[in-house]
Design brief:
alpha+beta; five-stranded antiparallel beta sheet; 137 residues; 24% helix; single chain
């Protein structure tokens, strides 16, 4: 797997939506759980339809947003990592794909992937809200 950070804004990555076996091809944006949960709230208050499945990893206290394949090539949001699947795809089943994790928003209750432009804005807003809350302590 590979991670990438770039200064070029990510618009809409191009990729095939699925391979012959029916596996969805996507990248994974990982953020600290606090920022991720705030972003989920922001996304749900917004249009809501731009949100794909979200994984919660209890052990590492992180959230993972499934985004379209190709997003990692231009992902540059500080404090987050976008990991490519290298075209291997991922089966979106009710069972979480990683041991020790669970779906916060499972497949079937969400879009196939979160819009990376919308996610970028939500993560930025979440970071500002957290910073403001922490500075008031």
């Amino acid at each position: 797997m590979e991670t990438s950070q770039s200064n070029e804004p990510c618009t809409s990555p191009s990729s095939d939506a699925a391979d012959d076996a029916g596996a969805e091809v996507c990248d994974l944006v990982t953020v600290p759980a606090r920022q991720g949960l705030e972003a989920v709230d922001i996304l749900r208050r917004g249009s809501g339809d731009a949100m794909g499945p979200v994984l919660h990893d209890d052990g590492c206290d992180t959230l993972g947003f499934l985004v379209p394949a190709g997003t990692a090539a231009c992902w540059d949001v500080p404090g987050s990592t976008c990991t490519e699947t290298d075209g291997r795809g991922m089966r979106l089943t009710p069972e979480p794909p990683v041991e020790g994790s669970d779906w916060l928003l499972p497949p079937g209750e969400a879009d196939l992937a979160t819009d990376p432009v919308v996610l970028r804005k939500a993560l930025g807003e979440a970071a500002r809200l957290i910073e403001a809350a922490d500075s008031r302590r």
